[in-house]
Design brief:
By secondary structure, the chain is an all-alpha fold. It is about 65% helix and about 0% strand.
Length: about 120
């Protein structure tokens, strides 16, 4: 399991590549899209969601209130209420879908090429 800092750095690196491509795609489809500024960036939201899945918590609400607000408030100084965070969660679905696709194909290429030791799969 990755530390919070390692997880955030990995997700942030992905988001630095993904977000400009996503915004370019949104501008191409000729529909008007709102782009409201948030207190948390996409990588922070995704990090919190991924950390929940790595945790022992069964309830996201308990995780957010106890772990995120209780212990990680210094790491995320602009935290919002649980309700606001939950409202933002659907906005990460496209990023998660793209990330999971990229991860799947990178692992698939390693396995098909017999490079499982080089890909960290062993």
């Amino acid at each position: 399991m990755l530390s919070l800092e390692e997880l955030f750095c990995s997700v942030d690196d992905f988001c630095l590549l993904f977000e400009p491509l996503w915004h370019k795609q949104l501008m191409r489809d000729a529909l008007k899209h709102r782009h409201r500024h948030r207190q948390l960036c996409l990588s922070e939201i995704m990090t919190i969601e991924m950390a929940f899945h790595q945790s022992h918590y069964r309830s996201f609400k308990a995780f957010y209130q106890e772990k995120v607000h209780g212990q990680w408030s210094a790491a995320f100084p602009k935290l919002v209420s649980y309700q606001r965070f939950v409202e933002w969660m659907p906005s990460t679905s496209h990023a998660f879908k793209y990330l999971s696709t990229q991860l799947f194909w990178s692992v698939y290429r390693c396995v098909c090429n017999g490079l499982d030791q080089d890909c960290g799969l062993s």
